[in-house]
Amino acid sequence: VKAGKRGTFQFYDRQMSEGLDDRRQLETDLRRAIERGELELYYQPSVVLKTGEIAGFEALARWRHPVRGNVPPTTFISIAEECGLIHAIGEWSLAEACRKAATWPDRLKIAVNLSPVQFAGPDLVGMVRGVLERTGLPAHRLELEITEQMLLDSGEATLAILRDLKALGLRVAMDDFGTGYSSLNYLRSFPFDRIKVDRSFVTGLGSGAQNAAIIRAVIDIARALGMRTTAEGVETADQQHVLSLLGCDEVQGYLFSRPVPAEEAQALISRWRPEDRR
Ligand code: C2E
Ligand code: CA
Ligand code: CA
Ligand code: CA
């Protein structure tokens, strides 16, 4: 029994340290990838439900590792958050996205994800202001997406930064709404411009009335508070139909387009036919 126990323990021990080595290796590789400019942004359109027009795009980071192939952003963003690289990645992705959006028609907005860790870093507001100045993108065309998780361990300091960001003239969206503990509390504390309904509720739309009821409630609250709504992860025409009955403003998902490289986003902008998308 003793030997067995020890054997088991050693097995887990080895796995754990291999996991750590693996992460450390990825961290080294990520650092190099940033230096060599190997990260790329993909863009996913957000579609106005009523008109079928493209409202704008969300920028999503991609990393093709020379050996491992594509590393999911959830993996490398979390590594970057742990080791501090997120500040470099965050500034790069914001600048790259704004530079690209500045070449699009004026009516199109660009949405960029912010990591909670960036709020703890030095002068987030100054960084964003600097990027807007350098790229010449009008602030009102930029929307920053913040997951409600980020607000968990934060109080007045985060709210003050959010207010300073909004004072630049940009918009702020609450991402993944409904997945955290205190969604409603945050809505009371801060005037978000938009709520993004998490994909899990949209995916469940077909099964049972609960998900539709929840989405309906979120849309009602958003409307009462003067916020707009976007539903994420729309994959079927049925989901689109229900969301339009519920009065959702915008939709994003594979039904319309996967995230695509900048050139393909450009092609979508010029070839999009709203009447086919309603
Ligand atoms: P998110 O901000 O919630 O982004 C939405 C995710 O859903 C994206 O995954 C997108 O590709 C995926 N998606 C969009 N439509 C559909 C659909 O119809 N069906 C399904 N199954 N998925 C859909 P992705 O690109 O893998 O990104 C995952 C997460 O990584 C993002 O979640 C975001 O939290 C984070 N992330 C990505 N890029 C960045 C970045 O530049 N900075 C930061 N801080 N986080 C990022
Ligand atoms: Ca997002
Ligand atoms: Ca989301
Ligand atoms: Ca998410």
From TrEMBL:
Domain EAL positions: 23-273
Protein name as it appears in the record: Diguanylate cyclase
Entry superkingdom: Bacteria
